[in-house]
């Protein structure tokens, strides 16, 4: 799990080159925003020329580097993203967006300790930043420091209770501590805060199935189905839970869907 895995980075509107003419600064901002929109809609190839043009117009290199790194990660170019991020952090060591993006990349590379170090620096630079606290919590969980992870993730949720990735990470940490009721409650509370999150609903169903609580799994899945929030995974889990309850006809219908 990563803090920024399911959401594109927010590109700030600041432009670093104050000597650029006002029109160029506005144009650079617009280009970066458009590039971010293309990235968010899974069209990274179309974003590259816009970022290059924004750089030529004096766009903030920190913001451009952050977006480029996320696109590289989306394209599976982990090594290239790390090179770019290392250079960016060297030039702007307290840039929270760069630190958090490198924390994500390092986690993907299997460097949980490096990820935690970057996330910790981000927390120091921006103590109120919920994403920084969540990133640190996720990295600490990967290091097996579940008590510290739970504390960080609870802080993050306190600041932003409706962000599904925070709830998913906290539920994972609770489950690793064998706190299954707390994990389930975390996911259910998250669904209440973000009812449109399919990821939270599927995680809650998986947890119930792992705990052999098939009736509970069916209840969560049916609620999602009624709300029109479902995918093949959810229907497959619903079919499995129904079959374990001996409700073969309903299970067949769920599998058919």
Q: What percentage of residues falls in helices of 4 or more residues?
A: over 70%
| Intertermini distance | 29 Å
> Are there runs of 5+ residues with pLDDT below 50, and where?
2-17
Strand content: under 5%
Mean pLDDT: 92
Q: How big is the Rg?
A: 21 Å
What would you call the shape?
globular
Could you please describe the fold and organization of this structure?
By secondary structure, this protein is mainly α. Helix content is 74%, strand content 0%. The protein contains 14 helices and no strands. The protein has helices at 22-40, 44-56, 61-74, 78-91, 96-108, 112-125, 130-142, 146-159, 164-176, 180-193, 198-210, 214-226, 232-244, 248-256. α7 packs antiparallel against α8. The longest helix has 19 residues, at 22-40.
Protein traits:
disordered N terminus, mainly alpha, 257 residues, globular
Brief sketch in words of this structure:
The chain has 257 residues and is an all-alpha fold. It has 14 helices and no strands.
Topology:
Elements: H1 22-40, H2 44-56, H3 61-74, H4 78-91, H5 96-108, H6 112-125, H7 130-142, H8 146-159, H9 164-176, H10 180-193, H11 198-210, H12 214-226, H13 232-244, H14 248-256
């Amino acid at each position: 799990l990563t803090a920024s895995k399911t959401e594109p980075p927010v590109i700030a509107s600041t432009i670093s080159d104050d000597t650029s003419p006002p029109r160029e600064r506005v144009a650079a901002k617009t280009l970066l925003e458009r590039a971010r929109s293309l990235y968010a809609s899974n069209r990274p190839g179309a974003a590259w020329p816009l970022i290059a043009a924004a750089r030529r117009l004096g766009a903030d290199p920190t913001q451009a580097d952050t977006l480029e790194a996320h696109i590289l990660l989306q394209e599976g170019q982990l090594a290239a993203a790390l090179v770019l991020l290392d250079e960016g952090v060297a030039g702007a060591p307290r840039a929270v967006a760069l630190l958090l993006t490198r924390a994500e990349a390092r986690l993907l590379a299997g460097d949980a300790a490096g990820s935690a170090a970057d996330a910790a620096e981000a927390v120091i630079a921006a103590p109120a930043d919920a994403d920084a606290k969540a990133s640190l919590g996720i990295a600490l969980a990967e290091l097996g420091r579940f008590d510290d992870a739970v504390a960080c993730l609870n802080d993050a949720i306190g600041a932003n209770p409706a962000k599904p990735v925070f709830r998913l990470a906290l539920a994972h940490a609770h489950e690793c501590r064998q706190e299954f009721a707390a994990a389930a409650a975390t996911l259910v509370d998250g669904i209440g805060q973000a009812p449109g999150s399919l990821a939270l609903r599927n995680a809650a169903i998986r947890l119930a199935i792992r705990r052999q609580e098939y009736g509970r799994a069916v209840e969560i899945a049916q609620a999602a189905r009624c709300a029109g929030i479902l995918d093949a995974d959810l229907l497959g889990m619903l079919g499995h839970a129904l079959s374990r309850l001996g409700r073969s006809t309903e299970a067949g219908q769920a599998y058919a869907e």
